[in-house]
């Protein structure tokens, strides 16, 4: 049981004993799809929780004015901010596309297209397929989803490495230093490379007219042109 593994919460799943005749609409296959989305949301939340732990660790390390101005501490605060930016904006996209856009479309379909039990079943299937598609959980989007989970893994690894050893005080300068700073810096560099690569992939998909909703993801993740600037520089 490794808390730094992306799949650490995958044992949690949604279960619902659907009675007849509801099981005609909410089928076993539907529950599987709901669980795919649920698992993705848990992984996203886990990354967010890990970054909260990083924030607390860094806050405690900067216990004095001198310690707070330590070069290593300030550098790690910037790393955490970049990771938080990614997680927050990805979560904003998911909430918008799943809880708002897809649900609103589903309600509209229920009002306009459902005239029989078969219509209701079809409407629910389409709703779930839209969620799977927009959450990048479809088969065609597997490489993109894997890249996102790899990024989550780097965030968990960053938090785990930071927690592995306490900060050390430099008696001469009054600064604090972390024994694994070079490793943390390396993890961040990999994180930055992966997020820039993800941005470039999504940009190509949007330009190619594939998955219009990804334009929203691009807008959220690339807030203030952060990745546009980074990719151009690289």
Account of the protein in words:
This is Gamma-tubulin complex component. Keywords: Cytoplasm, Cytoskeleton, Microtubule. It is found in: Cytoplasm, Cytoskeleton, Microtubule organizing center. The C terminus is likely disordered. Helix content is about 70%, strand content about 0%. It is elongated, with a radius of gyration of 21 Å. It has a single domain, classed as Four Helix Bundle (Hemerythrin (Met), subunit A) (Up-down Bundle), CATH 1.20.120.1900. The chain is mostly helical.
Distance between the termini: 38 Å
Please, what is the CATH homologous superfamily? Gamma-tubulin complex, C-terminal domain
The biggest sheet amounts to: 2 strands, antiparallel
Neighbour order of strands in the largest sheet: 1-2
* Rg on CA atoms, Å: 21 Å
Question: Could you name the ranges where pLDDT drops below 50 across 5 or more consecutive residues?
Answer: 230-234
Domain Gamma tubulin complex component C-terminal: 5-227
GO molecular function: gamma-tubulin binding; microtubule minus-end binding
Subcellular location: Cytoplasm, Cytoskeleton, Microtubule organizing center
Protein name: Gamma-tubulin complex component
């Amino acid at each position: 049981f490794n808390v730094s593994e992306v799949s650490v919460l995958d044992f949690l799943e949604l279960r619902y004993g659907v009675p007849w005749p509801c099981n005609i609409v909410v089928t076993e296959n539907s529950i599987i799809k709901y669980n795919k989305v649920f698992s993705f949301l848990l992984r996203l939340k886990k990354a967010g929780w890990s970054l909260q732990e990083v924030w607390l660790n860094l806050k405690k390390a900067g216990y004095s004015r001198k310690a707070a101005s330590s070069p290593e501490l300030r550098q790690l605060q910037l790393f955490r901010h970049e990771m938080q930016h990614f997680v927050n904006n990805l979560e904003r996209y998911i909430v918008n596309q799943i809880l708002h856009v897809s649900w609103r479309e589903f309600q509209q379909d229920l009002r306009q297209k459902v005239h029989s039990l078969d219509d209701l079943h079809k409407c629910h299937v389409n709703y779930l397929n839209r969620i799977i598609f927009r959450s990048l959980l479809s088969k065609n989007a597997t490489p993109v989803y894997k890249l996102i989970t790899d990024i989550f893994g780097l965030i968990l690894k960053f938090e785990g490495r930071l927690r592995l050893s306490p900060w050390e005080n430099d008696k001469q300068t009054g600064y604090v230093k972390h024994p694994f700073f070079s490793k943390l810096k390396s993890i961040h560099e990999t994180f930055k490379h992966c997020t820039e690569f993800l941005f470039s992939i999504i940009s190509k998909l949007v330009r190619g007219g594939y998955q219009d909703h990804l334009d929203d993801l691009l807008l959220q993740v690339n807030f203030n042109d952060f990745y546009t600037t980074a990719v151009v520089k690289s």
